[in-house]
Amino acid sequence: MRIIYKISEEEANKIAEIRKTIKNKMTDKKLYAVELRGRGKSNPEIAEKLDTSPKVISKWVSAYKKGGVEALFEHRKGGNHRNMSYEEEEKILSEFSKQAEQGKIVEVSEIKKSYDKAVGRETKPTQIYALLKRHEWTKKMPRSRHPKKAKDGVIEASKKN
Question: CA-CA distance, 38 to 12, in Å (whole number)?
Fold first, then answer.
């Protein structure tokens, strides 16, 4: 069953006052939509004016009625979706850091196994590469030979002299 929220003229006036202090454009747009609803406009009319869909307007009005003005402030969806804190990640990497300092080769697959065990589930390799980048780890591989090393025949010829 559809719920139609009513917004009073008094609420619309309060929102108009709040909008004067808002600097975030998206938050202002949401507040303006609620304000227009309080001034008697329908969702399709507001949506056309604000270049969005009526469903979005309905969502904003619903959020306002359920949580007040604070519910309309900008909430970022991105951010930290990590499984553990920076310090916990650092603790896992410290084991591998010790191995690297001893001159041993550390592979991403080993770090991934340790990370998966700590998290308690399978993760994707891209998550491990992001972890390594976050902790400023770089890829360093020992070279099989120096790129400017002379050929074996030239070295042997120089030894005879």
Answer: 5
Residue with token string 């402030």: 73
Q: Which tens digits make up the pLDDT trace of 22-55?
A: 888 999 999 999 999 999 999 999 999 999 999 9
Amino acid at 79: G
**Model confidence over 88-133: pLDDT tens digits?**
999 999 999 998 888 888 889 999 999 999 999 998 888 899 999 9
Q: Which helix (H) or strand (E) holds 30?
A: helix 25-38
Q: By the 8 A CB rule, do 34 and 60 touch?
A: yes
Long-range contacts of 118-121 (CB under 8 A, 24+ apart): 118/84, 118/88, 118/92, 119/83, 119/84
- Which uninterrupted H or E stretch holds 66? helix 54-67
Place of tokens 């949401």: 30
Question: What does the block give as tokens for 47?
Answer: 């949506």
